[in-house]
Structure formats: structure tokens, C-alpha cells
């Protein structure tokens, strides 16, 4: 899978841009605050219908316009697929092969991307919510069923939390409706937990090999999925569902008092261990960086295994955060394997030695200029 072309209209600081992209490594070269990250964001948005930088879609629309459009052409083994996203005050519309999609979940997965930026180190050392979001975003791309179950779960969770808050103000409490919501939430929650366990086992397999190579066989990386469901009941969706239902019953008084749902995949976490020790708590900065890099590179192989296509890799100023050894491993691993977009201020040193025949785009003073055959349109950029 690769992105053959990318068009932007009124997206962020770009008025218009039309880029013909290389199948290998594409380098977005320029000083800081020139708009490089906005181009990566556009590709990410085209894949997932949402930004990794903001939760407000209005931020994506150029301040001089009322709508923004991101479109592109994805080449897969089965053929070429045009994609289009339009953002406006009325919401967003998604088209696949020029046909509007009724649900965004039908759109996601047409273009698979993996983003690696300096802030992705938070996957290892950040809050549990960061790791839950990581699992949901990545697994949702690979598994439409996971995305559907997650959407249903979030809707029910919001409804259940709202009802719990309502019950706080009532003398006579209707626990029958709460029980119905709990049963429904447990069913979807069990599917999510089971899918996470399955995908994490596969991701761990790929990450272990990569981590061992980077650490020169001195370290072993393992994953642990932290949930309130007892370990001996993490066997199948039905058993997990029964366990969640029992936990809701056990926590009912506490949930009624606090007015919120205290059990389920929205409360779970993912722990990483290096040589048996929690790398989030006890690992060195180097071990944390190696763990994050191993996870991101493992995603490439996992997506290929699950979808039959390699994803597009987005590297946003990440090379400056890695030492020479980790840079070498990263660039060697992706060369001739996946289409990659790299933002950087310089191609000097080890980067230039390891990147073969890159397609280079110069981003400077509000314009994107291609070096070689790819062509681009003009763009208007104020800041990154």
C-alpha cells in the first residue's frame, strides 16, 4: 500500500497543494515552523478521519475558509482507491471511490498509517489513557469489528454514566434499567478486551524480535494487559462478559455513589516489561526509547499480517530524538519496505547515508517545492 498523490484545499495553513509522491522514502525538508508537520497531519487525517494534534475538526480548516478538503489516491494490491474527506461546520464527509460513506467506520482502514513522533514516547511513560488510545487507534485500523464494538461501547458508556449521575438525585432508584445497560456494556466490553488480548499477543511477538536486535540480545520485552477481569477468566468473550457483569454487581454501590462506571476496557492499561521489570517505572530513558521504537516497528509487520498490506509510515521529527544506533535500525528496517514520510531540518550525517534515492520536498516560506519529477501546487503556510 502506498499513497500515490495528496491534494489539500484550505487545510490548516495550505490554500492549495497537489503532491505526487514517491513509493519509497519521502523527505519533507525545511526549517522549523514551515508547515512540514501539517502535511503529515493531512495524511494521518486522510487515513483516520481525525487529527493526532487536535480533537477539534474546526482547527483543520484554514481561518480564511469555511471548508477544508483532503483527498488522495491509495494504491493497493487489489487496485487504486480514491479517498476524500471534507470538513465544515456541518461536520465531515468521507468518500471512498467517489461514493459517500454512511459511517466513518466504513471509511477507516482504506489507508493504514503508523505515526511516530517524539510525543509517542508517552506510549511507554505516559498516562494509561495514552496507551488505551494507542490500542484503539491502531487496532481499529486493522479490524473494522473492533472499531464498531468500540463505538457501541462508548455510546453505552456515556449513557450508563449519565444514568448513574441521574440516580444520585433520586430517592427511589430504578436498578432494572441500570442492569440492562450493564449487560449491554459488558457484552461489547468483553469483545474489546478479547480483541486487545489477541492483537497484543501478535504485536508482542513482532516487538520482542525487534527489541532484542536493537539491544543486541541483552534485553527481552514483554507486554502485560492490566484489567480488573481475573487472569483465569481472560479466555473467551463469553467468560469475560460474565466476569464484567459480576464486577458491575460488586461495584454497584460505589458506582452509584461516584456516578461513573468503574469497570471495563476504558479503565484498563498496558504495561511493558524489560527483563521482567516495568520499563515505565524502572527503565532507563534508553530502554524506554527502544521500547517505543520496537512497538512502532512491530506495528508495520502486524498491519501487514492482519490486512495483507504494509502501512504508510509517518516520522515527524523523530530522527533527532534517536541516537545513531536507533536511527540506523529504524532506517534500515523501513528501507525498500514501506512508503515513509520523514520531516527533518537536515539530511546530513547518518540519515543521508542510509536513505536511498529519497523523494525530497522542500517546504519553505509558504511553498512546497519538489526535487525531481513529483510536482506540487502552491501552498500558503504561516506556521507548523
Topology:
Elements: E1 2-11, E2 14-20, E3 25-29, H1 36-48, E4 68-76, E5 79-88, E6 91-96, E7 99-100, H2 104-107, E8 113-116, H3 122-125, H4 128-142, H5 144-167, H6 175-214, E9 221-226, H7 237-250, H8 252-258, E10 269-274, E11 277-278, H9 279-282, H10 285-307, E12 312-316, H11 324-334, E13 340-344, H12 350-354, E14 359-364, E15 367-371
Parallel strand pairs: 3-13, 3-14, 8-12, 12-13
Antiparallel strand pairs: 1-2, 1-4, 4-5, 5-6, 6-7, 9-10, 10-11, 14-15
User: Can you tell me the number of structural domains?
Assistant: 2
CATH class of the largest domain: Alpha Beta
Sketch the major β-sheet.
6 strands, antiparallel
Structural class: alpha/beta
- Amino- and carboxy-terminal Cα gap: 27 Å
| CATH fold description of the largest domain | Rossmann fold
Binding site for ATP: 30-37
InterPro entries: DNA-binding_RecF, DNA-binding_RecF_CS, P-loop_NTPase, RecF/RecN/SMC_N, RecF_2
Main location: cytoplasm
Subcellular location: Cytoplasm
Amino acid at each position: 500500500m502506498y499513497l500515490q498523490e495528496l491534494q489539500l484545499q484550505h487545510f490548516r495553513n495550505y490554500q492549495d497543494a497537489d503532491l505526487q509522491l514517491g513509493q519509497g522514502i519521502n523527505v519533507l525538508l525545511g526549517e522549523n515552523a514551515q508547515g512540514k508537520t501539517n502535511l503529515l497531519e493531512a495524511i494521518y487525517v486522510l487515513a483516520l478521519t481525525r487529527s493526532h494534534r487536535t480533537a477539534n475538526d474546526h482547527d483543520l480548516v484554514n481561518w480564511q475558509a469555511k471548508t477544508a478538503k483532503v483527498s488522495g489516491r491509495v494504491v493497493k494490491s487489489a487496485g487504486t482507491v480514491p479517498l476524500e474527506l471534507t470538513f465544515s461546520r456541518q461536520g465531515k464527509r468521507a468518500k471512498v471511490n467517489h461514493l459517500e460513506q454512511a459511517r466513518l467506520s466504513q471509511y477507516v482502514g482504506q489507508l493504514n498509517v503508523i505515526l511516530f513522533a517524539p510525543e509517542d514516547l508517552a506510549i511507554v511513560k505516559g498516562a494509561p489513557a495514552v496507551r488505551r488510545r494507542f490500542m484503539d487507534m491502531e487496532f481499529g485500523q486493522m479490524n473494522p469489528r473492533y472499531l464498531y464494538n468500540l463505538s457501541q461501547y462508548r455510546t453505552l458508556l456515556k449513557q450508563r454514566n449519565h444514568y448513574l449521575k441521574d440516580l444520585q438525585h433520586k430517592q427511589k432508584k430504578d436498578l432494572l434499567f441500570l442492569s440492562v445497560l450493564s449487560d449491554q456494556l459488558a457484552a461489547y466490553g468483553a469483545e474489546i478486551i478479547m480483541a486487545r488480548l489477541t492483537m497484543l499477543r501478535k504485536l508482542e511477538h513482532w516487538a520482542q524480535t525487534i527489541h532484542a536486535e536493537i539491544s543486541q540480545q541483552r534485553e527481552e520485552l514483554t507486554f502485560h494487559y492490566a484489567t480488573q477481569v481475573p487472569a483465569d477468566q481472560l479466555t473467551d468473550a463469553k467468560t469475560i462478559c460474565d466476569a464484567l457483569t459480576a464486577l458491575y454487581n460488586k461495584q454497584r454501590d460505589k458506582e452509584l455513589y461516584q456516578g461513573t462506571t468503574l469497570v471495563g476496557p476504558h479503565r484498563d492499561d498496558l504495561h511493558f516489561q524489560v527483563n521482567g521489570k516495568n520499563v515505565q517505572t524502572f527503565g532507563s530513558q534508553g530502554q524506554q526509547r527502544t521500547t517505543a521504537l520496537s512497538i512502532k516497528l512491530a506495528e508495520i509487520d502486524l498491519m501487514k499480517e492482519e490486512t495483507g498490506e504494509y502501512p504508510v509510515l509517518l516520522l515527524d521529527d523523530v530522527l533527532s530524538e534517536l541516537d545513531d544506533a536507533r536511527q540506523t535500525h529504524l532506517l534500515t528496517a523501513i528501507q525498500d519496505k514501506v512508503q515513509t514520510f520523514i520531516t527533518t531540518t537536515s539530511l546530513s550525517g547518518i540519515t543521508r547515508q542510509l536513505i536511498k534515492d529519497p523523494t525530497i520536498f522542500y517546504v519553505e516560506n509558504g511553498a512546497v517545492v519538489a526535487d525531481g519529477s513529483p510536482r506540487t501546487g502552491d501552498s500558503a503556510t504561516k506556521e507548523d
